[in-house]
Here is the input.
Amino acid sequence: MATTTTGNSSSSDQKSTTSPLMVKPTSHQRLVSKDGRSLMRGPAAGGRVAWLGALRDMWGAWLSLRWRWVVLAFCGSFLLHWLLFAVLWYLLARANGDLTVDHDNPPPGHTLCVKYVTGFTAAFSFALETQLTIGYGTMYPNADCPTAIALLALQMLLGLMLEAFITGAFVAKFSRPQKRCTGILFSPQAVVCEVEGQRCLMFRVCNLLSRPLVDVSVSAVLYEERDDLTLHQTSLEFLLDGLGSRPCPLFLSPLTFIHPLTPDSPLSRVLPPGGQSHFEVVVFLSASQEGTGTAYQKRTSYLSDEIQFGRRFSKAMVLRGNERRNSLAAMRYFDTHLCSLMVPNTHTNSRDKECVVQVNGEGNDKME
Here is the structure.
């Protein structure tokens, strides 16, 4: 894989690597949805290959299923388990001759394997009773039938393994880091404005969870489609307003992350007025819960039409009580207002100079 190296925007001695990933079709496809779901799919595999891949990664395939399929698999696995052992108990009773004898008065010398299993319905009821109860009623295995005791032990072992797998899968699916982050909101739009004379790309994150988060860090990747229809990735470094590149020790109020658009920044060549290629900025946030250390992960992405020029985020207001847990009220965290933006001119005509452009505002543009 060919790689090229470009300077990082935050420090001249740090480097970020750009490498082609894959060939994309001519139609633009979003890589990550706004709520963090990956929209990229690999090449379609045949049925047999897909099933073999799912079997090799059964745990990952289970966790990636939707809840309706998980519940269906939960019910189906237990039904199949009971049906399997119902057939085995029925075959045991048939082979032992228990289906045609009077269980209250068995013939002399005949040993019943399971009392009162006289048909398939009774065998299914016995399999269900064996799996779900701690004692037996009128149907019970005979201690003088070794085959029945061996089959009973086999059903209990397999049943315990199935219950352990299902229970663990449910717990793992409930405790996934992405599912715990519904109270972490990214700003729907990123903005480009000037901070201390430097053009910067900014986005904001707010925490609506009832518990504080610690050690909040953000990483970002620029995915850019080049003229040769290859998709390239480049790492971007975002600085936290007031803390620089250090992780945020406590996530209470909204956090604003800044990426300086220096000449060495990979974003400088793709953002207007000079950029023409299709790109997507994917942002990854990771944090941990105070006290337990439980991991939290959230991601989103910004396309070129989701970046507003000449605007900046308003000062964060303090929301109290139920307002803080209301996602509609919390959208006020992402309010923006107009600001002047110095845009460098990319024309080669020496008479052209820099211009001050008021984007998304009223009035005439000013030219020098």
